[in-house]
Amino acid sequence: MSSYPIYTPKQQRILLITSLLVLGGFIIAGLQGYVSAFFGAGILYVIFRSPFYGLVYRKKWNRTLVIVGIILFSLFAIILPFLVLSFLLIDRIQYYSQHTDQILGLVKQAENLTNFKLTSQENIRKILQQGGTLASRQLPSLAGGLLDFLVIIGLMLFTLYYMFSEEETFQEGLRRYLPFKRDTMKDLGEQLRNNVNANVLGQVIVSFVQGILTGLTLWIFGVPDAAFWGTVAFFMSFIPVLGTPLVWAPAGLIQLSQGNTSQGVGILLVGAIVITNIDNLLRITLAKRMGDVHPLVTLAGIVIGVPIFGILGLVIGPTILSFFIVLMQVFANQNRESREEAEVDEAKVETRAEVKAAKGV
What we know:
mainly alpha; 2 domains; elongated
C-alpha cells in the first residue's frame, strides 16, 4: 500500500492556509472580549518606545527596572486616572437617569428661554433612562464587570511587559511576518508613532485641559455639580467640532433662563473666548510636535471604536482608522515602486534586444 500523501503540493498549501485561517478565527473569537487589552498594550508600547530605548540602550539602565517603571507609570498616570473619570461619569449618568426631575426642570427652563418646545417630558425621561443603560454598557463599571476589568488590565500590562522584555524577538517577528520591505517598515513605524502621539497623547492632553477649564469655569460661576460637568467636557472634547460647547453653552443658557445674567454671560464669554481658543492653540501646537489627524478621521474612528471597545474606543478607534489609512498609503507606494521597477526591467530588456539586433545587423 502506497504511503504517499493524497494531496498535491498546491492542495497542501491551500489546506495549510485554510487551517491557519480557521484556527486564527477561533483564537480571535475567544479573545474578542479582551482585544482592547492588546490594542492598549500596542499603543503604550509605541508611546514609551523612545524613552525605553534611551534608558536601556543609551544610558545602559537595567532593563527590568525600566520596564517595571514604565508599567507603574502607565498604571498610575494614564490608566487609573482615565478609569476614575469613567467611574465618576457613569455614576452621575446613572444618578440622573434615575432622578430625571432635575434634567426635566432644566429642559423646561430652556424651553421658556427660547420659546421652542423640544419634546414631551415623557420622551425626555425615556431618553435619559436609555442613555443611562447605554452608558452602563459602554463605560467600565466596577459593580458590573470587576473580573473582566482586572483581566483586561492585567493582560494589557503583561503584554506590554513581554513586548519590552523580549523587544528584539518582537521586532524581528514584525520584520519577518509583516509583508513590507525594510525601508517601508521604517516609514510605517514613523507614521504609526506620529498617529499614536496625535490620537492618544495629543487628544488626551487637549481633553484634560479643556475638562479642567470647563469644570473650573462652571464652579466659579456657581453651576451645581461642576466636577461632573467637567468630566463630561473631558469626554466630549474627543468629539471634533462639537466638543466642550455641548457642556458650557447649555450651562450658560440655563443660567440666563434662571435670571442669573452675569453668570450666564460669564460662562458663555469664557467658553467662547478662552476654552475654544485654548483648544485651537493646543491642537496647532501639538500638531507641529506630534502629528495631525483630520477631524473627520477622528469622528469616524470614534463612531467605529466606541461600540466595539467601549469608552476606550475614543482613543483606539481613531488610532485604528488612522493606521488603516497609513497602510493604504504604504500599499499604494509599494505598488508604484513595483510598477516603476517593472518598467525599468522592461526598458533594460528592450535595450538588450536592440543591442543584439544592432550587432546582428
